[in-house]
Amino acid sequence: MLARQDWTVTAVHAPDPFRRAARPADPGLASGAACARRAAKFHFALLREGLLKPEDLAHALTFGEGRSDRMLPRGAVAEDRLLEAASRHFAVAEVDPLAPLPDPALIDRVGAQDCLRYGLVPWRRAGSATVVVTARPDTFDRLRPMLEARLGPVLMALAPISRIEQAIHARRGARLAQIAEQRVTAAESCRNWSQIEALPWVVSGLLLAAALLYSAPLLVFRLALAAAVISLVLSMALKIAAAVAALRPAPPEPPAPILAQLPQVSVIVALYRESDIAPRLVRRLSRLDYPRDRLDVILAVEADDARTREALASADLPPWMRVVVVPAGQVRTKPRALDLALDHCRGSIIGIYDAEDAPEPDQIRKVVDRFHRRGPDVACLQGVLDYYNPRTNWLSRCFTIEYANWFRLMLPGVARLGLVVPLGGTTLFFRRAVLEELGAWDAHNVTEDADLGVRLVRHGYRTEVLDTVTGEEANCRVLPWIKQRSRWIKGYMLTWAVHMRSPLLLWRQLGAWRFAGFQVMFLGTILQFLLAPVLWSFWAVPLGLGHPLGQVLTPVGTQVLISVFLLTEAVNAGLALIALRRSRHQLSPLWIFTLAAYFPLAAFAAYKGLWETLRRPFYWDKTHHGLFDAADLPG
């Protein structure tokens, strides 16, 4: 990976209480007071020219020292007019960093990732100095000592941030893509998973299964039945324990310490072939009740997705939203796009939304408040996901009930029990420093969220579930539903296999309690779906048909088996009813009894996922959105 210097963007300004102090500041950065005076002169010049409003100047003077991107609120001055004024004030030129392209060796001396973060690019040599092009003239003085330490004497030039980012990607896009695909250490990534790695295990398993089926078919069936029943019982026990923990009243929150300044929050939305939903996404995110100069929304779009980029270009994006083009790489997955977009983020809190999301307006304020109340060990907050089209059809109703159970009982309970929280893919918020410490997302894992939840616990961090809701669109067509679920189950398979490479190490990092919970949630889920046909086969008994175990199962064994099945269904129905009542939906409880026809679809998805785990482990089966948007949903 590209070597990174031991400093972060918050080292440039006053300490940010939301950023975990993981790395010391670079001693080569300029003092804040002197730089602030020079920046203030520029701001007053903007005021005299009528380009800056008095209230924006007051904001810059009040909060400038704590800003992590620039002193002026974004959008206070149009970028083109800001650069024109800066050119006059600082007596520097506006240039086009794309003509000619920057010297790649100079980019490497600063670091492509840091260039993106600071909105600058070392362009070319001018005698003994290096011309550094920036879009943030009022923060250039703060970065000058660091730049001179890496480049020697520097001269400032100006260009729009979009041109600077295009220039960096033109020269180092392939390298940035490679970095994004290898951020997670090899020991905790599935990128080395391949047919070569899996083949010995697959061949050995098939040979063993064939030998056992030939020599002892009843033994194979008994083992399969035992595994299915044990996973069923353990899963039921975990569901009950999680529900009890989730329903237990939470202790009252003590008064939070005073928050002097709201932190910068960056939100990443990975888009791919979402041209029809992009304008609605912009409108929905515009309803977030958070100061716009503190909000940084990045729309990450694949380089070859011209239609989505055109749709965003015509959507009239506000200044606090920007498009980041993700260069082509070896894989095309959501986590790879997130990894690359992370380097463009300005915030100390990083959030994730999906294209169809409609978050509650006060969601980010709740996130900031919870992080402020908690210690640095709480590195992630998971919001509640719900559907805004529950009545589209039967499948959407069942999906809504399943999500209510998962996000209103299971995940909150698992978090309170101190177990591994398998994160959902959206409405996630992280402390940025922790993300960077862990290598962010595994670009090759198709359930990067659940995998990251495991890695957080392995490295001593906690996740809490936050009571804030994001509306999503239920995938309610059978074949797309199976494709989406197969991707989730495939990701569970890969995640379990990766973290079980060194079982003893995982045991030491998680402890016995969390290790057991990890096995139940991941291995247990996989086995339940794959071995579901074994349990279905017992429907042959009440129908008067023969069964392979009919002659060897004792009456007591049969009664125990039937009791387990009935108790499991009763527990599932009861928890679904509780979860449905805790949700905002008024669906009839009778729909719960149709889940018996819903969950078998996941068994088909599991076998598809197993096949892809062996043949196409990194293939991202895209789920298309915007097909069943609620008519009464704003935006």
Explain this structure to me?
This protein is α/β, with parallel strands linked by helices and 635 residues long. The chain has a domain at 9-181. Helix content is 50%, strand content 11%. It contains 22 helices and eleven strands. The chain has helices at residues 32-48, 54-63, 79-90, 104-110, 112-118, 140-151, 161-181, 195-215, 217-247, 278-285, 306-313, 334-342, 363-373, 394-416, 432-438, 448-458, 478-499, 503-530, 532-536, 555-582, 595-598, 600-615; strands at 120-126, 129-134, 154-158, 265-271, 295-302, 321-326, 349-353, 358-359, 378-387, 428-431, 462-472. The strands form two sheets. An eight-stranded mixed β-sheet has the order 6-5-4-7-10-9-11-8, with helices on both faces. Strands 1-2-3 form a three-stranded mixed β-sheet. Helix 10 links the parallel strand 4 and strand 5 (295-302). Helix 17 packs antiparallel against helix 18 (503-530). The two termini are 41 Å apart.
